[in-house]
Model the fold of this input.
Amino acid sequence: MSTENSDWEERIAAVWATIDAYDEARAGEFRALVDKLAAELPEGSPVAPFERACAFDSTGRSDLAVPLYQEALRLGLTGYRGRRTKIQLASSLRNTGRAEEGAALLEPELTAPSDELDDAVRACLALCLSSLGRDREGLSLVLGALAPHLPWYQRSMATYAKALVEPR
Done:
């Protein structure tokens, strides 16, 4: 089965649409649903560990998500899911006390081809930088990401963002 299989994609999306119905006590039930769908994918599919990692991550188990995200990348996950993997892995690394690894993973994404995940890259990198005591750099990233979405002050906020990290 290919991950491009629209039936499989619809079914995994339907499971993810129910995530908020699972509290901490029922998190295992949610993970089991994701695991069942991931098991339908061919041996060696990078999407299977990615989906499993997401399920662990979304239910408070970043520690168990990290090796699965890493496996997905090792298996060659690219494209949109590949970029999501890097963002989510960096977040999980930060949550498990490995913010430096998370920042190193995301810094190259700042110059990657642009897509709708750009702001998520910057937000997650900002958190990693803050965990490393580099708050000004993190704030600069967040302001820079926010500026284009403002109805006014876009240019000034972008200028302030740059000023936070430029030598005085």
Observations:
- The domain at 6-107 is CATH 1.25.40.10 (Serine Threonine Protein Phosphatase 5, Tetratricopeptide repeat).
- The chain has a mean pLDDT of 94.
- The first helix runs from residue 6 to 16.
- Residues 93 and 101 are 7 Å apart (CA to CA).
